[in-house]
Amino acid sequence: METIPQPAGPEPRGTSRRTLLNAVLGTSLAGWLATAFYPVLRYLSPLRDARNTDEAELDAKSRQEVAAAGFAIVPFGSERVLVLRDHQGRLRAVSAKCTHEGCTLQYKADESLIWCACHNGRFDLDGRVLSGPPPRPLAQFHASGDLETRVLVTRETA
Fold first, then answer.
1. Do 53 and 77 contact (CB within 8 A), yes or no?
2. Count of structural domains within the chain
3. Bridge-partner residues for 95, per DSSP?
4. Which of 4, 85, 95, 124, by CA, is between 20 and 30 Å from 39?
């Protein structure tokens, strides 16, 4: 049996379908890898502004928030601090991070307590656990000053 030679077709010009498909798949794979690994690398890298500080001053917006809502969550180095005004008008400050799973806390002025919405953890205004799953009390801070002029938050020394 004889094979009949096929006529040679014209050579493809420019980009072939296979080359285009390889480029699209390669770009898609690179994008997927970047999407998958960026959060991991970001989590493992240290924060740029992670610094320990001994004091922080509330800005005007935070002071207004404390005056209006009764509390504000302010940055304290790499931590969050809940600054509140109690029923006697005194300023108090505790860690804004729940000791159970790290959720952000809120001040409930009507109940005079600090509340974690994640698992219904409740703390008194000194940060002691009243109920719920939190295993430890909140870290204490000291707030001093006047909401009209200047409020300074400092770390409690034990």
1. yes
2. 2
3. 81
4. 95
pTM of the predicted structure, to 2 decimals: 0.65
What DSSP string runs through 69-119?
A: HSEEEEEETTEEEEEEE-TTS-EEEEESB-TTT-PBEEEETTTTEEEETTT
Q: Tell me: the pLDDT tens digits for 62-73?
A: 999 988 888 999
Of 144, 137, 77, 78, nearest to 105 by C-alpha is 137
Residues shown for the chain: 158
Residue owning tokens 């008194």 = 124
Is residue 145 domain-shared with residue 72, that is, in the same domain? yes
| pLDDT tens digit sequence for 43-96 | 887 655 555 578 888 888 999 998 888 899 998 888 899 999 888 888 999 999
Determine the structural domain holding residue 21 and report its residue range. 15-45
- Do residues 17 and 25 make contact, with C-beta atoms less than 8 angstroms apart? no
Instruction: Give the model confidence (pLDDT) of 106-124 as tens digits.
Output: 999 889 999 999 989 999 9
Pick from 146, 158, 155: which is nearest to 90 by CA?
A: 146
Domain CATH number, residue 129: 2.102.10.10
